[in-house]
Amino acid sequence: MKKLLGIVGIGLGLTLVGCGQKEEKKEIVVYSSFEEDYVPSYIEAFNKEYPNIKVNLVRDSSGIIAAKFDAEKANPQADVMWGVATTGIILNQDYLQPLNYDIKNIDTKFYDTSSKEPKWVGISAWMTAFSFNKIEGKELQMPLSYEDLLKDEFKGKIVMPNPASSGTGFLTVSAWLQLMGEKKAWNYMENLNKNIDMYVHSGSAPTKMASQGETVVGIGMGFESLKEEANGAPIATIFPKEGSGWEMEIVGVVKKEKIKPAAEIFAKWAISENAMKMYAKNRGVVTDSRVKPELKGYPADVYAQMINNNLLWAAENRDRILKEWENRFGKQK
After folding, report:
1. Fewer Cβ neighbours under 10 Å: the N or C end of the chain?
2. Domain residue limits, the chain
3. Please, are residues 237 and 252 in contact by the beta-carbon 8 Å criterion?
4. What radius of gyration do the chain's Cα atoms show?
5. Which of 48, 47, 71, 68 is nearest to 59 (CA)?
6. Which fold has domain 126-245+307-330?
7. Which residues, listed in sequence order, are joined to residue 219 by a DSSP beta bridge?
8. 147-191 pLDDT, tens per residue?
């Protein structure tokens, strides 16, 4: 179900300017997949800087938001896409407006380079990690690599997300295909499947199952695993030595006949250092090199841990990859 959150900014509907003149409060429609728990604090911070802009937020899962964006291309309803997964948007990036974002502190792999000015800029990212239950796995050697997961001792002791229903599952499968090449990667997944206990629909479920002792190894999100570990769960968070697959959330102004200046203001604010610091509290890795993850346990050079990820390739080949995965593994567990 679509969730419409009308977030009214701090301040009055009318703001006095100059000698008795009044300026109507500006409004923008923003589509987002950010978690509902985080959004109010983000919008409150934006309205402290821009009290005369009201943000009407339409929030849903990345898949639903991407589908809405695609369906509305001929008659766009949103002014800004914010906190939406790249692979859901990138095939329609020509429907985003190039903008002179301040990107000097953001690596080129985190923003659009298809035009002189980026059509979108990444803001926060999540990556593959293992959650290893140290109690249930006390007789086992902790896996440090993807290859380690193939050891016989892990038979029936691994849970991973189904890539057809989980973005975390898909980014992990996509990473294997890009790191190993397709032939070797599908062979790897055939061998890994022998050790998989089950494929689950949620990207966070494997981490929670490992935390609760329901499995020894959960393949999931590094940020979720580090949070569970920090909260006292008996797990170790492992970032595989070959590198981690990753996905990121982006911001972009929707291309329209008439683009609202308030939409450009919001999009530029969304990649500001202040905004990045807030994302870092909730999402872990952000794209601004000045802002480091607040959670302890990430690799010292977190960007080096992230594979050289071709997000456009992943998006273009998503349907083909998922069909192949479903044919091989979808009905097995």
Report:
1. N
2. 3-125+246-305, 126-245+307-330
3. no
4. 21
5. 68
6. D-Maltodextrin-Binding Protein; domain 2 (3.40.190)
7. 130
8. 999 999 999 999 999 998 888 999 999 999 999 999 999 999 999
216-268 pLDDT, tens digit each: 999 999 999 999 999 999 999 999 999 999 999 999 999 999 999 999 999 99
Output the pTM of the full model. Answer: 0.84
Query: Considering the domain 3-125+246-305 in this protein, what is its CATH number?
Result: 3.40.190.10
